[in-house]
Amino acid sequence: MNPGANTLREIYGQPEAWNCCLRMLDECDLSQLVGSRHPRSTEWLFVGCGTSYYLAQAAAASFVALTGFPARAVPASEILLFPYLVIPTTSAAIFAVLISRSGRTSEILETAEALKRRNIEFMAITCDGNELAEISSRTLRLPVTEESTVMTSSFTSMLMALQYIAARLGGSDGFIDELHALPAALTSLLPIYGPQLEKFAERSFDDVAFLAQGTLYPLASETALKVMESSSSYAQFFHTMEFRHGPKSIVSEKVLVGALLSEAGYAEESAVLLEMKSQGGCTLAIANRISPEVRSSADLAIELDLSMPELARLVIFVVWGQLLGSYIGLRKGLNPDSPRNLTRVVTLAG
Ligand code: F1P
């Protein structure tokens, strides 16, 4: 099989994967999963490792935005190593959401056991099921099959499903209609920007940084992780405005600065990207609408031009980093399907 064939098939297959998940969610009795654990009376705590941790962050932010109640995200290791910081003895009731494509990551399985010991209820969301589905009495298993080591369609599908649940709890049926428009939206964007990213990936960089704020920040984190995993390149992520407070000293013509630009913060965030271009960096802008100034300055501009609200199109923001990572990996002669030093599941010996 050609290097990267699985990863690319899974990235380009996301519209179909999302359609399958939406069909399943429309049929699903979500009250069975969530029970009486409404965010009004219970703090939702999203937990994952690696890509699933950034997914947890994006889900928590979506949850806050859609329900108006607080929610947090932590890596599973924090619950295991520093439980008193994550769940202090006086904390209010907690409902945890354990996120794992494989359902086999040992930190997640140990977290499930630790929560059980403390009588903290949780639900699981997974693609493969495995041991996590056995431990958890409330499991949402999505119809997504991924062969690649790196998580692409599993990330976007699980995030979309958690947004779906948040919208149900928040009473935003209109938001669920917006999610149904995602597969067609991505189908029309992929043939435009896929080839442009493949061409863009011919350039080589010494350093890569992705920037975003608000609900887009976890997507910038995942974008950087995809570039690291799929191309064995070092990539960092920052809150966009924080990049000015020191990190910008890395900028040169061999540095790629990519920005996922929000609507609310467009003026301030795009000013950072323009500044990095003026300091000699190579820039990539991803936004729903791109202003003429950013378009003429950026080395690549990806304009989504979608009518749905920003929160509903979060998953579309990460697809370009998935492609960029894979295409850089291929250009470097690597196989993005099985990146160096990585395994599909991380299990730590006890
Ligand atoms: C999460 C994860 C991935 C990473 C690697 C190992 O797994 O850490 O983020 O790319 O392949 O697994 P999971 O708990 O979601 O299965």
Can you give a write-up of this model?
The chain contains 15 helices and ten strands. The protein is an alpha/beta fold and 350 residues long. The strands form two sheets. A five-stranded parallel sheet has the order 2-1-3-4-5, sandwiched between helices. Strands 7-6-8-9-10 form a five-stranded parallel sheet, with helices on both faces. Helix 13 links the parallel strand 8 and strand 9. Helix 4 packs antiparallel against helix 12. Bound molecules: 1-O-phosphono-beta-D-fructopyranose (F1P).
- The coarse overall form would be globular
Helix content: 40-55%
Order the strands across the largest sheet as they lie in space: 2-1-3-4-5
The Cα radius of gyration reads: 20 Å
Strand content: 15-25%
Overall mean pLDDT score? 95
Q: Describe the biggest sheet?
A: 5 strands, parallel
Oligomer: single chain
- Count the E strands: 10
| Unreliable stretches | none
Query: Structural class from helices and strands?
Result: alpha/beta
Give helix and strand order, one letter per element, not per position: HHHEHEHHEHEHEHHHEHEEHEHEH
Distance between the termini: 35 Å
Bound molecules: 1-O-phosphono-beta-D-fructopyranose
Count the DSSP helices: 15
